[in-house]
Amino acid sequence: MTVTEDTDAPSTSVNSNNNNALRNRGKSKSKSKTKSKAKSEDEVLAGSQQQPKQRVRRRRWFFVLGIVLGFLVTLTGVVYVNPMQSTHISRIHAIVGDLEVASLVPDTLMPDDFIRDISQLLSPGASKEGQQQAASEDFEPALTLVAEEALEKKHSVIIVPGIISSGLESWSTGNESRAYFRQRMWGTSTMFKAILLDKESWVRHMMLDKKTGLDPDGIKVRAAQGLDAADYFITGYWIWGKAIENLAVLGYDCTDMELAAYDWRLSYYDLERRDQYFSGLQRRIEQSLRVSGKKTVMVAHSMGSQVIHYFMKWVESPKGGKGGRRWVNDHIEAVVSLAGTPLGVPKTLASLLSGEQRETVQPLASYLLEHFMNRNELARIFRSWTGLGSLLPKGGDAVWGDLEGAPDDWLPREDANATQNEQRLVSYGAQIRFDDDVDGLANQTMDGALALLQRVLDGDAVRLMKRDYSFGVFRTQAEMDAHADDHRVWTNPLQHQLPNAPDMTLFYLYGHGATTERAYYYTADSADLQQEETGAPPALRIHKRSRPHLANVDIGIVNGPGDGTVPLLSLGYMCASGWRKPLYNPHGVRVVTREFAHSPLAAFKDIRGGAAAADHINILGNRDATADILRIVAGQGHKLTDRFSSDILEFAKRINIP
Questions:
Q1: Residue 305: count of CB within 10 angstroms of its CB
Q2: What whole-number distance in Å separates Cα of residue 522 and Cα of residue 30?
Q3: Annotated catalytic residue within 563, 606, 615, 628
Q4: In terms of Cα–Cα distance, which of 626, 579, 622, 617 is closest to 239?
Q5: Residue 571, SS3?
Q6: Is 302 tagged catalytic?
């Protein structure tokens, strides 16, 4: 932030200093005048140096204050016309208390009375009746299901959160880190304060070492533990909070429901190497079976579903948990995936390629990162997080299409208006498009885009990616057998088989009908991202110019069907088709797909979209999806069957994989 210094700033200081000099005259008039003159000149010089600095500091504080107050005013303007305002205002009030606005701003700039006035303004004023109604809604649909279907807890539950949603806390004890000891570097208001006031230190704590993929020297950040590690991102912004409340109605508590938080920055290989994450997961599930005599239900969101699939292969393998080929069948009753990412997410490609992201991270965190960091800084951070590689798209051109078209391109409609609109839709087959005639840059399919990414990344990032991941397709049993114990394919469902667990059920629950990033228009950007290898292509950025003639393109992003974050192809192909084939499911694991159309309320009615919202994050509060989870953990999962309402079955027919 550039601040222009005022040239007349010292004037007030001059007058004040002269008055002081006159009041302190000595006995000798000439001597006094000399001293006064000398003193005045010195103080004028000091004032001229000090005042601009004070102005700079004051303006920085006002900038920070403006961000905080702007956020609060925006939310307040929405919730005060919301029928559920008592609930939302109470949560915003909690955010204000958690954020401690007064601690961000010097006392001279933020009187205590003003803070008190804000707190009083946002304090809940609803009647007891309204508060009781809001409280009861927080525990639905569990209260209804217990009353109508007599549901009660049966299986122990392990929750595996998605990327970004687990809190990360500092365990470093160096001079720079002591102020953050056991404070959340990701999640809660501590993260907000750190980015606003000490960005460089926050970046050093959050980045991983580019050569090892582990902690940098002197830095130690670990996943926060316990249910509160991912129940709320910050106070009032729930992630797993609603699901935990509903499970509690069935009788669950911290003795038979736990959250298996992990450091999502790490590759899965390093999760075990550094934190013994999968070994600990294996021990907990085995202990639960010994104590309760019942198998465990694992519930995951987003990237967490991939973590579970990796775990099931790891625990079977002699190179992993050494549990044997029947371990999964004997210990896991069901896996429930909410908004899972089996075939990856294209927006991860954009994050790594050019440091651009729209909700690669949580929306609230995304706002901070976008407004306080440039693309160079974001690219450096994202590229150090080796865990992001697990979210790169799998299956290449066979799944995502070629320059002639893609499986999830629009389907012909009978409606005349729809037909006219389809003529203005661009195909998804070119994952990266260039339309500004830059020499040496051509449209790229998914295979080409991943190859381009490897040219852009530095040597260490490419080495770690090749060590940890594989993105292709196996089409024969011989290929499966040859790589059964290769950890690189355990994150790719097109290169490994489901476990030998015919008694287990996979439930894939996801939303659709939200605009989702599917492909991109790029252009050369010679003024930005530094390349570290000779022969690398020009630095790239999303080309955000307007293309009004294309109905599915917005500021350089080609949008398609999905849940707002994950395209429908990734959400649904494996559970609707891939795992129905013997090559990928040779032991007959039961697979159930449950789709939910995204039907949010208007923002002025509910900020999060209400009980029918089914986008990537808010599906965690979707009433129907929550009801399915409750029935599964209560032992009623056998009553659930496939529920399709999107075009995924038609899209799957277009994919030529045996």
A1: 26
A2: 75
A3: 563
A4: 617
A5: helix
A6: yes
